[in-house]
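no rush on this but wanted to send it before i forget. theres a chain ive been looking at and ive put its sequence and its fold in token form underneath. i want to understand how the tokens follow from the sequence so walk me through it. thanks a lot i owe you, the record is right below:
>
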Amino acid sequence: MRRFEALIRHVIDEHALSRSAVVYRLFDAVLVLVGVGAAVEATQPDLSVNAVAGCLWAIATVWVCFLLDYLARLWVAPHEGDLTGQSFLRSRLEWIVSRNGMIDIGSVLPMALGLALVDWAPDGAPLLAIFWVSRFARYTTGLDMLWRVLSRERQPVLGVLLIFVLVMLIAAVLAYLAERHVQPEHFGSLSMAMWWAVTTLTTTGYGDVVPETPFGRLLAGFVMICGITVFGLLAGILATGFSGELRRRDFLRNWDLVAQVPFLRDVGPGTIADLANILRPREVPARSVLARRGQPGDCMYFIVQGEVEALVEPHSHLMGPGDFFGEIALLTGGPRTATIMTLTQCRLLVLDIADFRAIAASRPELLVVIQDEADRRLGLMGKEHTPGGKS
């Protein structure tokens, strides 16, 4: 039973890189697309009765699949809580109120409530299939990042929104005063004028309401310019916030990964900080070829997790966490001297040749460490049981 539970946990793990986990994620995405597509197609007025019934059956089938997925995740999710001695019920309750738990329940509960409260018709409960799109949030940190950006930039964002509301109200009042006698059907009340102000300020321009007085047209032009300015400011604030959040996230992640490489712990925090800014993390599944003998080398790799095998004569060499490879081609400018294949799922840090040369010039102590380690292991390469072969 525990082996089957571990298998289920591995397959539904959104971070696993095994073939079964990737296939399951693709299957989950296909189910979302099928369910949402069926909900949209079922509302077509010229669709036959049989086609509508097929769409409704497709939605019901997808919902059952999501229900089974939810039950499976509920069953295997609290394994970390089990290790801390939490009770069976408490650990599962904690998962239910977690981010992923809420995403999964959002794929199941609305449809169940809709089925109980409204008819199973194209304009009823099946329309709730649109909530299934939220399942994609499990595989991305975009929504979390957006929330952090809005939290950090809330003062300038609120300032821009205040400007938007202020301009909208002033424009609505002025348009009402200028146009109410000329177009009472469009500007007869302040609320009607606010509709025009919103469509103009957002530069949507439906054309259903157009000022006719000279002052009204001059006001419309001014509001259009204000709209472009306001949304330009908002876009700039959010773009800057996202850029800063991405740099911050990548730096912290790379710092943690660099700190796990043993020989890099002695190069100093300044060098580690420089490496954290330029190293690119990479997840690689098992049995993947990272480098081929004879090919030109354009990067080197640091192993954080996993094992790789260097296929080089006369013996193959195993490398694990803390080892690196690919530096010989960068140091000498020659081709790869070995073929490198992953034996397990690996987490690597990749250093591009351009970044390698730049940091070698600015941090010569790092180049000395890499050169010394490479020379040491090159000297031991001919011994059969020596780990850490090079390419």
In short: Residues 2-140 form a domain with the Four Helix Bundle (Hemerythrin (Met), subunit A) fold (CATH 1.20.120.540).
